Every structure is written in structure tokens, then in C-alpha cells.
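Predict the 3D structure for this chain.
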Amino acid sequence: MKKLFNIIKLNPRKFISKDHLTNDKYRAISDFISGMTDRFAINLYNNFKLNIFELYLDKIKYNNS
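Done. Predicted structure below.
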């Protein structure tokens, strides 16, 4: 959960409306995560990890060109 929190913290506007973020950003992120189903949270985290891995592979390809 901590890793998912940190991922969302990097770009909270992607997931949470501006209105919810104005009072307390960390509370809004916590509320967003607590409302997720387990499956949604796992998929969101895995999608983020996959995107990071793809960026890494692209960087390797670029450096080897």
C-alpha cells in the first residue's frame, strides 16, 4: 500500500479531482486508496510497474543504437 500511495502522490491529479486535493492531499490519496477494491489496487500498481519496465527497455534500446 505504501508503494501505491507514493505512486499516486507523484501525480495525484491523474487520479483525484482538484477539489478533493485542496484540503489535504495526503488524506485525499488515502481515501482514494481505501475506496479501491483489492483487484483494482493490484492492477493499478502492476500497470505502473509495467510502464516503468517499458521505459527502461526503451532506454536500453536507445543507448545501444
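The mean pLDDT is 87.
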